[in-house]
Structures are given as structure tokens and as C-alpha cells.
Amino acid sequence: MHCRLIGIPLQDGASQLGCEMGPSALRVADLKGALEELGHDVTDIGNVTISALPDVRHPNPSVRNLPEIAAWTKLLTEVAYRESGAGMPIFMGGDHALSAGTVAGISRRAAEKGRPLFVLWLDAHTDFHTLDSTKSGNLHGLPAAYYTGRPGFDGYMPQLSHPVDPANVCMIGIRSVDPAERAALSESAVTVHDMRTIDEHGVAVLVRQFLERVHAANGMLHVSLDVDFLDPSIAPAVGTTVPGGATFREAHLVMEMLHDSGLVTSLDLVELNPFLDERGRTATLLVDLTASLMGRKVLDRPTRSY
């Protein structure tokens, strides 16, 4: 497979600085080399950056950095659409606000191919706020609401050409949801599997059910992996830690199943904050998980010590 690495030094959606260093940390952890060892052709196109900011303001006084996020969303929609035509794009973030653009761009590509887009959202949070409902004002809490076409973004964020059907979104690992998000999700067709569901049924059952749906629909699958999907004990480099996340083996199992399915067409790696890491262990784990997604088997795993 031809992989396209795209660095997105975006930190305007988060409250804590540091995510702009995420792409560099993934490069230092040798994401490119790990993929090449698996036989993939890899091109790193470097980092993308925004330039002019739109003059947009929202009446919700909590909203922070809206011009920046609007500009990033417009840019990343274009980049995701373009790069998805040249291979499998791997978006190296950057906070989760980037997914507003990456998913929007991939959705346009899927529509051109006449295939539905599905999204596997691996995260502690649903990121289902709107500009009206957010109280923190941190816009990394909005992308899932935006790309599924929830109202309230017109005139503030770029016009969404191809919204993702909420029924095609599956969220796994959820364990922190605000009341406004919970109310919106109760009226939505989005599938939400919290950590209790994983505890009761096991993550393999949940992933397999979703993959069967994607396969039956001949869908394209975008995977959005947030560092806080993982338990903070194994992945400390994130500003939104929530205890009780996925274990090392649960996370690798998800990635291995995704590889076996052959359905994944694009990937987000988000919320890596190297400033909060311990000797690069979280960046290294993200590289290892990506390698599992791209074909590394359990018996191929290198021995590591920390």
C-alpha cells in the first residue's frame, strides 16, 4: 500500500499547548520506518499550515480560536480529499479538531467513488458538542458533530459538502460525556460503546459487529485514534486523560482486527502531546499500534524496554 503521511501541527482546539509537536514526535519514533519495514511505500509530505484566517465570531462567549479552527477545517478538507486520491492518508496530529476537516475531505472522496464512509471513533470522548453547546469552548470537542451535519455550524465553519451518516459512526472507548452531548446522542443514530460495554462484551465483539456492517455496505472506513482512548498508565502524553481506558492488548487487538478486515482507507492519530510524555513512550506506542493496523503480527513484535 502507498501511505501518505501528513503532519498537522494543530493545537488551537485544545486547552493545553503541546499537540503541535505531535507530528515531530511520531517522526522521531520512526512511523515511516515502521511502515516501510512492513513493505509499504511511504511518502511524508511534511506539515501543512494555515495562512489567512476568516473573520468569524460566535455569540457563545466560551468559544475559543474559532477563526483558526475554521481555517484548519477548510485546509484539511482539501488536503484529505487530495491525498486520499494518491494513497492511504495517515494524518499525524495535532488535536482532535483536525478530524472535522479530515473526515469531511475523505467523505467527499467516498461520495465520488459511490461508496458510503464509515468512521470508527476510538476516544474517551464523543466530541459531539456544537458551537452553541460547548461550555469549555475547546473546539476539539466538536468534530463529530460537525462532520455528521449537526445544525449550528453554518456561517461559522466551512460548508460541509458530504456529511457522514450518523448511523455509519461507531464510537468505542467512551467514558467522559457532557450532558449536552448525551442528549444529542440520544437523538442520533451514532453507535456509542462505553468502557462498561467493553467490560461486559469484550472489544472484539463490538469491533467485529461494526466491521461486518462496513463490509456489507462496501464502505470505506476512516479510523480516528485519540491517545485518550488508551489508559493513561500506558499512554500519558495527552492533556485530556481519563482513567479506565483501553489496555495495551485491547488496543492492539482492535488494530489487528482492522488490518484483517482490509477495510481501512484513512487514519487519524490525534492528541499526542509530547510535552506530557515519558521518554517518548506514548509516541512509540502510537507507532506500534499503527504498525499493527498496517500488518504487523503478534509474532513479529520487537522486544522493547522502557
Descriptive report:
- With 306 residues, the chain is of the alpha/beta class.
- It has one domain (2-300): Ureohydrolase domain (Arginase, Chain A, 3-Layer(aba) Sandwich).
- Helices cover 35% and strands 16% of the residues.
- An eight-stranded parallel β-sheet has the order 2-1-3-8-7-4-5-6, with helices on both faces.
- Helix 7 crosses helix 8.
Short description:
With 306 residues, this protein is an alpha/beta fold. It has helices spanning 22-28, 31-37, 66-83, 99-113, 143-147, 179-186, 195-201, 203-216, 248-261, 281-293, and strands at 2-8, 41-47, 88-93, 117-122, 169-174, 191-194, 220-226, 264-270.
CATH class: Alpha Beta
Number of strands: 8
Q: Please name the CATH topology.
A: Arginase, Chain A
Runs with pLDDT <50, length 5+?
none
Oligomer: single chain
Helical residue percent? Answer: 25-40%
Question: Tell me about the biggest sheet?
Answer: 8 strands, parallel
Q: Report mean pLDDT, rounded to a whole number.
A: 96
Assigned CATH architecture = 3-Layer(aba) Sandwich
What is the H/E string?
EHHEHEHEHEHEHHEHEH
Shape: globular
Number of domains: 1
Termini Cα gap: 31 Å
- Derived from helix and strand composition plus strand pairing, the structural class reads alpha/beta
Please report which band the strand proportion falls in: under 5%, 5-15%, 15-25%, 25-35%, 35-45% or over 45%: 15-25%
Q: CATH superfamily membership, which one?
A: Ureohydrolase domain
Strand order of the largest sheet: 2-1-3-8-7-4-5-6
Number of helices: 10
